[in-house]
Structure formats: C-alpha cells, structure tokens
Design brief:
mainly alpha; three-stranded mixed β-sheet; 24 helices; about 65% helix; about 5% strand
C-alpha cells in the first residue's frame, strides 16, 4: 500500500486526500517527516486548517523548519501564530536568529509578549517549557463561579483538567481537579475541594527536574511559581515526556561515545554526523595512549614471557565490560533520582561485593582451564587478575559518574567508552604487576639468558 512519500512523489492529489482522510494525525506527522523537504508542503496544504495545526505541532522542530521553508510567507505566519506559546518558543529558539526575529515580529502583541516571556528564561529551565496560558481559580469561589470561568477562559488554556488555586496576590495555595468541580454542588467553595499540599516547581528549576517531578507524582500538570510563590505558568505531562525523551536520547548518545544530534537522524547531514563523533574519537584516542605507555613500560616483561600477551585482550575486555555494566546501572539510578551523591559510600559498598562475587566467579572458571593449558603459575595469574580487575572496574564504573555529577558534569559524559578506555590502562598495570610478582624467578632467569645471548 502506497504511503505519503510515494503518493507525494507521484503527485496524485486525489489519492493524497483520501490517504490523509483515512490516516491519524500522529501517523501523518510521522510520514510527513519522511517526505523530501522540498515536497512537504504538497500534502500539508491538503489538510484542513485545524488538522494541519495538529500535524504541525506533532512534528519535531527540525521538520517544522523544513516545512516552513516550503510554505508561503503568509501561511508560515499563520501557523506560527496559532501554535501554543511554549511550542512556539521551542521552534523559534532552534531557528536562525534573523528568521526567528521576523516571525516573532509578525505575531500579535499578546502572542509576541507571551512568547518573549518564555524565551527570556534560561534554555534548560522549567520556565522555558511552561505554558503561560492557564486558568487559575480563587479559593473563595463557588464551584458554579469556577466552572463559569473555565468556560470563558478555558479555550486558550493549555489544560483545564488540573487547575491551580491562588489567593488575591496570585500566590499558589492549592490545586483542584475538574472532575471534583463538575461533581460538586454549585454552592460549594473551591477551598473545600482543593488539595492544599500542592507540588510545584520554581521557574528557574531544571527542565529534567520538573519532568521527573511530574512523572514521580503522577501529575497531569505542574504549577510553576516565581521567587514570591506567585503562579506564572503550568507544565503539562506531554511537555514533560518530551523533555524526558530528549534527556534519555542524550544519555544513550553519550553512553555510545557520541554527542547528541539535537535533531532527527535523517535531517542531519554527513558533516554533522561526523562532527558529533569526531570529538569523542579524538578524546578516546588520546586516552588510549595510556594503554600504549603501560605496554611500553612492561616491554621487557612481555618479551621475556611472551605468553602473557595472549591474555591481554581477554583481561582488558572483561575489565571494560565490568566497568560499563556498573556505570550504566548507576547512571540510570541517578537519572531517575534513586541515587544521589550522599549515597556514594553505600553504592561503593554494594558494588564492591558485586565485584568480588563476579571476579571470583570468573577466576574460578578460568583457573582450571588456564592451569591445564599453560601451567599452574599462569592459572594463578589470570584468576587473581580477573578478581582484581573486575573489583576495580566495578568500583570505578560506579564512582566516576557520581563524582562527575558532584562537580557539575553530566554523568553520561563518563560513559562506557571512557570508563572502558581508562580501565584498559589500569587493568594492564594490575595484570602485569601480578605477573611480575608470580613469575619473578622465571623473569630473572629469562633476563639472564638474554644478557648472555646478547653479551
């Protein structure tokens, strides 16, 4: 069955209209994002005005920009003016400054003011994603008065399902649900229905903190207040989910040693993709010099007992994998608020036990196999090294992300590739150090033979 991409390419307008009528809004947005940028306007113009706005708001800002580039100037201004202020602010924030300024200037005075307020807050703050369009009720209102106000002002509000309650100074004093208002007697007061122990967030708080709060408290909307506890906006659950999606994308990207793209993959050019990866590759390449230096320092040892080199890939891979496992678990626990820096001693204690158990398991498996093939001394070296490396890598993988957070860095920066690279070098030190101790007599004998042969 032909999709939007095929029908647009064929310029079959009748089939396009039929397809759009039969397809849901979110599905249209998903298909439209795959249409070549220069052709996106063709199916979009066939949508009814209200549905076109819904599709447009469902697109990623990068695809929104592509569509705006393909539309006429008057249609662009109309679309931007009809957007919710928070969605509009996000779009304009990601546009070139000149284009954003021109579009902002084409808005009505009220819409321009609402958008400018949001753009005035820091980029990652709760104020940047809140909606300044809300319905607030006063505690002294009756339910009949409250419902009348909702009917008058609710059309332009972001949400009316959870309503903030304020005093005469616009300070937040509680929240009330629309369901409670609808089912209560008309003469009952709002203060009798509201929840006074209200969850709110400061306008300068981090976006992820606000989104996690909505998720943890199972809220539909989160009130946003200023320094004086005055209500200035609300953050809805759909905006919170978008923030969490972006945060997860950033963490996954950095865990793979890549800077986040900040745009859909197919809208990024090869140069952008390479640029996002190049910095990490250079950094990891420089960090890998540590491993080279360790090998150089033990060059004579490796020459004397060449068998030692056979086990290097096994040991450093095991150490890197153990560190990556620990860091992944800890970063995840930190991101959802289960673990904080003050929990570092507890985390290290738990990971120490985990490292001991995993190291002993691997050592017990390796000892008989290596001893049988290479001899007892090598069995001891490999088993002891596995225990030591796994313990060290597990502790490092758990501690480094927490220390990074403590010093204001994103824990995901100390992701699996970086921890693996660091553990490689230190693991080699552990391995060759143990080998020197266990094989001291053999190394001394080999050194004497080499001296004789070269003398």
């Amino acid at each position: 069955m032909a999709d939007l991409v095929d029908l647009t390419a064929a310029q079959d307008l009748e089939a396009l209209r039929a397809h759009l009528d039969e397809t849901g809004t979110l599905d249209i947005a998903e298909e439209l994002a795959r249409v070549p940028p220069e052709e996106m306007a063709v199916p979009f113009r066939l949508l009814a005005k209200d549905r076109a706005l819904q599709v447009f708001e469902a697109l990623d800002p990068a695809h929104q920009q592509q569509l705006l580039d393909a539309l006429r100037e008057d249609r662009v201004r109309e679309l931007v003016a009809e957007m919710d202020p928070d969605d509009r602010a996000r779009l304009l924030d990601e546009m070139p400054a000149k284009v954003a300024k021109r579009l902002l200037g084409g808005l009505s005075r009220e819409e321009r003011q609402l958008t400018s307020i949001l753009l005035g807050y820091p980029a990652e703050s709760a104020g940047r994603i809140m909606s300044p369009q809300f319905v607030n009720l006063r505690a002294a209102m009756t339910t009949a008065d409250a419902l009348a106000k909702i009917r008058r002002a609710g059309t332009d509000a972001e949400t009316v399902y959870t309503l903030p309650v304020t005093d005469d100074a616009r300070r937040l004093v509680g929240v009330v649900s629309l369901r409670d208002l609808v089912t209560a007697p008309p003469t009952r007061r709002v203060e009798e229905l509201m929840v006074g122990d209200v969850v709110s967030v400061h306008v300068g708080a981090d976006q992820e903190e606000a989104a996690r709060l909505i998720q943890d408290a199972d809220l539909l909307a989160l009130p946003v207040v200023d320094q004086e506890e005055r209500l200035v906006g609300v953050i809805t659950v759909d905006d919170a989910m978008e923030v969490l999606e972006r945060e997860v994308t950033e963490d996954v990207s950095r865990a793979g040693g890549v800077e986040p793209l900040d745009r859909p993959y197919l809208t990024a050019g090869p140069f952008d993709l390479a640029r996002k990866r190049a910095v990490w590759l250079l950094f990891l390449g420089v960090a890998a010099v540590l491993t080279v230096n360790v090998l150089t320092a033990f060059e004579e040892t490796l020459e004397a007992v060449a068998t030692l080199a056979v086990f290097i890939p096994l040991l450093i891979d095991t150490g890197g994998n153990s560190g990556a496992q620990a860091s992944t678990v800890v970063i995840r626990a930190m991101s959802i608020g289960e673990v904080r820096f003050r929990d570092l001693p507890r985390v290290l204690g738990r990971e120490l036990l985990v490292g001991v158990m995993l190291g002993l398991m691997l050592g017990l498996v390796a000892f008989p196999l290596v001893s049988w093939v290479f001899g007892l001394e090598f069995g001891i070296i490999i088993a002891a090294t596995l225990v030591a490396i796994v313990i060290w890598a597990t502790l490092a993988g758990a501690a480094l992300p927490m220390l990074a957070k403590r010093f204001g860095l994103d824990p995901a920066v100390l992701s699996a590739p970086i921890i693996t690279t660091l553990v490689d070098a230190t693991g080699l030190l552990i391995y060759l150090g143990i080998a020197v101790v266990v094989l001291s007599e053999e190394l001394a004998a080999a050194s004497a033979v080499m001296t004789v042969l070269t003398g």
